[in-house]
## 1
Amino acid sequence: MKAFLVIPTGVNAFEQAQVCCGGVDFIELDDSLQSIYQPELYICGEMVDIDGKCGGYNLQWAWTSGYITGCTAAKERK
């Protein structure tokens, strides 16, 4: 993924903004959002296939899931 290059060529109007689906299926993660297939790989934010309603729900998911994975990963490193 580090070598995957994407060059944006433009944007649509704000009225066209919408949630995109896709990502890692939630059932492939444990309670700490660690992959059940690859230990020590944490998936959070828009990398998980979770879509919330408009109004900040997607942002809240990004912050909360980032907090959960960050705290768990930091504990494991001690």
## 2
Amino acid sequence: ISKVFFEEFIKHITTHYNVISLDDFYQKKFKKDTLNIALTFDDGYLNNYTYAVPILEKYNVPACFYITTVHEKAPYLWADFLDLVSYHTNREEVVLERNLYQKNAKKEFIWNGVSMKNVAKALPYNVLKLIYEVFEDDWKALPPEKFEDYWKLMNAEQIKEIADNPLFTIGAHGETHASLIDIPEEEAKQEILNSKKQLETICEQQITEFAFPFGYYNKELATYCKEIGFERLLLVDYNTKQDAKNEAWKNRFVMNPYISMEQQLACLLKGSYF
């Protein structure tokens, strides 16, 4: 969403509703007869630091930022890299792991009816890196600097600056933004643990919140998160009605960049896009 849209949205919700920290949300420090809202941001984009943080500070709005620590391996998330090169390359087909992917009308590369992006979600990072090699020249030809607002991630210094701001909280979001339920369980656990350790080193504080990449989770990984010290788990949707009863787990309402602010507010009040 645009900077202008975001500021209009923040101004509206702080004027008409009760915007609180995630900590207060968990403790149910709500106002009656109004919408109580806690804001979260996923992935750790530089645009959060450049555009969102100053607006949040201007309106004194708390927020939690869930950081993918892949910045130590690459300056972008694989999904953004793939989106950009797929859209802008002139190539109509590419080969990945001996499979021929062909571009469709939506400018997605498809093999056997499945997009490369969906295939990539389940790839371990050592295989996922092949995508960077396949599209290396396409990336350079963009040029990538033109689209930095879209893909660039925060560095360690910027993450630390946000962590030091009493208005904000830092949480973990995995190491490489893999779909943790689709890669081998031990590798998924390592992704979760690595992201926690890396952020604790950067922020010089305990990291006790974890948001699952894509919102995909299972009970085994949720249990592991608790074992290593995560006290709160953020999802997108609950897998079961029973999961919704777990006080440590919260689902979230995701902003839609393709609708007007009036429509966004209507859906927010309704609690659904349907």
## 3
Amino acid sequence: MNNNNLEKQIRELGKANIQELPPLLRSRQDSIYASLATIVQDPVEKEKKKRIYPKITAAVTAAILLSVMLTAIYPPTLANALKQLPLIGGIFERADDIGLQAAQRLGLTSRLNSSDTHEGITLSAEEAVFDGSRLAFSVKREGEELEGKLAGVTIGADGKPFLAEGAITSAEVLIDGASLEQFSEGLWKAMPFLSWIEGAESNTAIFRLVDSSNSGISNKPFPDRFVLTVTLDLNGIDEPFVLQIPARKATINKISTPDIRAQVGGWSLILKKLEYSPLTTRLSLMLEQDTDEDHTALSLVGFEVKDQQGQVLKDISQKVLSTSNRSLNVDLLTEPFEKHPNMLKIRGYLYEFENPQSKNGAFKTDSSGNPVKHYIDGLEINVLVK
């Protein structure tokens, strides 16, 4: 349901109901709308944001109280319509991703104007941001009686997961009309990587497309400007949804090529490139095994990036490609650092398996459900950040 239809429905329901809104609530409603009108603006300057936040908090609190009071006065149909009023702020602002939050706070995101409707369901592209390494964009679903998640599985009343009607089943993208295979000139290992996750609301999804120019196979980065054509299939809907996402690089990235090497116990780790923006931190690494020992461990090594405050940067993607039976290229993309550090630490580790005698199978997990890491002593690099 779009905002125009929602407003029309609320007006019609209000006319059909014989009860008038009490003057006190009517006055409060008008003041809330007036407050909201003053805060719908682009987040350009940090100081402006400091002044805006208290207004947003007050307006949201008042709107919630008003909604509760209206629910008691008006019939359930109107109450359900009120629940569909959009939340203040963008999907990126509520994402569990400090890079997307920073991009919106700094005014790097662009609002999109692309939607498609089939069988009473509308998908809309909401916002996008691009820093040359990753393109992120959000999608919102609107439609009657769709309660399941747009991205991922929904948990039913019986506690079992299922794919709800209207959930994404597949996604394909074109870069300026070219498929990812065409863009990577047929090198599937160098194809950009597309993924998506659920947004803060169940009817939203956040997509990310990461290029593979650091893979060591292809040096073809994304262009600074392109149009992404997205085709989405939803469960239970016959026709695919097609959205257009204009991408424009919105950042000036810091790049260094330190070529730092760490060697320990037959392992060598080389940091070839460090690139960072308000949206991402990206490292190009090479891992080498100098001995003729079992090379299966080579493919089991992971990497962690930590700033000088001890904060581990959250992984976005970690793409590993073999260049020989003794060496790997690692393209590691993480969220940005919240505070600019003087130094970053890159550490190599191996996952522990549930069966310590096995070299495959399920990973051992800690009490929080996270895989247990066994750090490789000495396989670490400290790099100065300019």
## 4
Amino acid sequence: GVLHLRAIVPSDRVDTVCGRLRDNPGVTNLVVLPGAALRPAGDLILCDVAREAANDVIADLRGLGIEHDGSIALERVDLSISDVAKQAAHRAPGHGDDAVVWDEIDRRTAEETKITWAFVAFLALATQLAGIAAIIDSPILIVGAMVLGPEFGAVAAISYGILFGDLRRIALATRTLAIGFGIAITITFVCALVSRWIGVIELDELPAERALTGFVYSPDRWSFIVALLAGGAGVLSLTAGKSSALVGVFISVTTVPAAGNLAVAVALRHWNEVNGSLLQLGVNLSGMILAGTATMLAQKAGWALVRKKGAGLPRGSSAG
């Protein structure tokens, strides 16, 4: 629950910055190294910040324009052996696991709106696994495709954009999903066609009955409910820094399996499954976006109440 702050501050604002940091009950281990920074020039300020106090500290520094004339960096502390650090976390209102460092989420979701070779490659590989799973009716490959799919980052970016009214972020993330899935589905479609021509795939069409993977192209009310739960859990794992929980999110939703099934169904001219796969894909994406936005909204509103409660407590008290 402790973050380490490194700030390069112009000399004319060092006293103000130090005063703001000293006044924040969630800050401790404050160190100032005058003239230590060369580019940009300034004084180097180091301190430990309770995670639940990070938003206030960042807001103070940005209010003084430090990000323009200097530098602000925060990093996680894996191990902090310090009674004063524990006291700082105790004094700061709220709990570190519940705190959302919005600037961190802003940067992470901004990165997820970019179309990169890695994103397209992972999505294409996952979609091809899902296509093979559709042909041989393999739930194990369906799970593998779910875990490999990288699409949740763009989904979270859309939710963040909706919450903060960032239309550009919504457009970029939507573009990333559309292009990524478009390329992945096209590659899987071409591979399925070639495999059929050379005899690797001996089927004329997908099996009519698929007991183990038929849910991929047969969405129902549970598909939407699962997407809602997965979207909420995914956002919580991002905001709380619990990345291991994302694996469970990936295994819960069938976006990539639906895309793989769509590609193979078109290649094998099994038109009955095309509409179902498209609907499954849409249901999962819309459910995750809706739940992700609602979860962020609840976190933002809830933390505002925690801060309001903490502001009314005497210095040195805890908001619980």
